[in-house]
Structures are given as C-alpha cells and as structure tokens.
Amino acid sequence: MKYVLLIFCFLVLAGCNEEVVIKPKALLHLQYPEPVYVSPKLDCPFNFVYNAQANIKTKDNCWLDIVYPSMKATIHLTYRPVENNIDSLLYDAQKLTYDHTIKASSIYEQPRVDSISKVYGMLYMINGNAATSTQFYVTDSSKHFVTGSLYFKSKPNFDSILPAISYIREDVRRIMETIKWE
Predict the structure, then answer these.
(1) Which among 105, 118, 149, 151 has the fewest CB atoms less than 10 Å away?
(2) 27 — alpha (psi -120 to 50), left (phi > 0) or beta?
(3) Average model confidence (pLDDT) across the chain
(4) Which of 135, 129, 131, 154 has its CA nearest to residue 78?
(5) What are phi and psi of 134, to 5 degrees?
C-alpha cells in the first residue's frame, strides 16, 4: 500500500512539469456593415429614416417592428395620439424604463430637443442584464407620441451583445433625429 501511494505521488508530481502559458486577455471584435439609411413608405402621422440592414413590419395603429434578422434584434415602435393625456404617456414611458432597475447596473438618459421640428424626447441607455438595453420616446407634446424599445431574441447577457447594442443604439439615435410629424 505504501508503494502504491508513493508511485501515485510520483506520477502526480511528474505530470506537473508542463510550462504554464498565460494567454492574453482577448475581446470579441464584431464588425457590422456601415449603415445606409432609407425612409420607409408609411401611412402614419410620422416618418423617419432607418438602417437598410433592418426590415420594417407594420402593425395596426402605426405600431412598427424594425427587425435586424442577422442580430436577432427588434426595435418595437408604438404610436399614440396625444389627446390631453401627455402626462400619462410620459409617465408610462418613464415607468417602463425604470421598471428595469432591478436587473440594470445603470440607466443613462440623453434628452432630445429639436424646437424647429417640434421633436422632444428622451433616449434611455440601460446597461446590465435587463430585458431591454435601449428605450426612447419622442413627441411634439400636442398631437403625437412615439415610444421605442430594443429587444434581442436571447437571454440578456449585456457583455455578449454589447457590440450589437452599440450598433443599434446609433440607429435609434438616427430615428430620433430624423422623425418628422405629418
């Protein structure tokens, strides 16, 4: 029994002679095509430009899905007319965003004010493993109110989908910057 234990220890020690190679920290580097923005043909009281890499699916009441099939992501847009309910629309948009504070590590706000085109809104960048990483709303504060949310068809893992989030956030900014009321 002594010899078996001695042989076992010898084999374990002999097997540990490999050199340890420390590998450098590597990051995933994804590249997406340069966006080309086009304007959809909508029968809605608003219009905007969107990335041609995406497809638009229209629903009832001018609700739209901007689908990025290669990234398995969708921006859900909802339109609501303002009928003396701007306070409740703003409250609902902000509440929907801040309901994600349970999983979010941080939420950054970026206001949008374009008094010439009468477009006012807020972009919310939600960091962390929340269900959505980007939400926004835009309004003219008298007739029109549009909200948007970005969702991926995968379990939230912020670090893994960060390159896609960053790419689509730029598209969301572009939608907010180019929205025009009819």
Answers:
(1) 105
(2) beta
(3) 88
(4) 135
(5) -145, 130
Q: Where are the beta strands (DSSP E) in 129-166?
A: 132-139, 144-152
Q: Which of 170, 157, 171, 165 is nearest to 105 (CA)?
A: 157
161 pLDDT band (50/70/90 cuts)? Answer: confident
- The amino acid occupying position 117 is S
23 φ/ψ angles, rounded to the nearest 5 degrees: -90, 140
- pLDDT tens-digit series, residues 117-139: 999 999 999 998 888 889 999 99
Tokens of 6: 């001695």
| Separation between Cα atoms, residue 71 and residue 32, nearest integer Å | 10
Handedness of CA 15, 16, 17, 21 (dihedral sign): positive
Decide if 40 contacts 52 (C-beta within 8 A).
no
Which residues have a Cβ under 8 Å from the Cβ of 182 and sit 6 or more positions away? 44, 45, 46, 47
DSSP reduced 3-state for 150: strand
pLDDT digits (tens, 9 = 90+) for 45-69: 999 999 999 999 999 899 999 999 9
